Amino acid sequence: MAETPGPASEADWDKSVQQFQHDLDEMVGLVKNSRTDLFAKIPHGDGQTILRQALVLADHNAYHLGQLVDLRRALGTWPQP
């Protein structure tokens, strides 16, 4: 398995987090928009719908959030209450 390099700097990490949040906000806005047809096929896709992509995104993000929680627990960096 190929190694994935980490961000080159804290600024790069912050930029990545900001981009993630921006993209997530865009998807949330799309889903919340009453004019969005969640069952419409995405024009550049192969039959996927907006609803399917939103569910895939939610599942994907939940998986990686779980990885981050496990990592913080393993490293002992979980915030104390």
Features:
single chain; 81 residues; mainly alpha
Rounded Rg: 17 Å
| Coarse morphology | elongated
Order of helices and strands: HH
Helix content: 55-70%
Structural class: mainly alpha
Stretches where pLDDT is under 50 for at least 5 consecutive residues are none
Number of strands: 0
Q: Number of helical runs?
A: 2
- Overall pLDDT: 91
Topology:
Elements: H1 10-32, H2 50-75
In short:
This protein is 60% helix and 0% strand. The mean pLDDT is 91.
Description:
Helix content is 60%, strand content 0%. The chain has 81 residues and is an all-alpha fold.
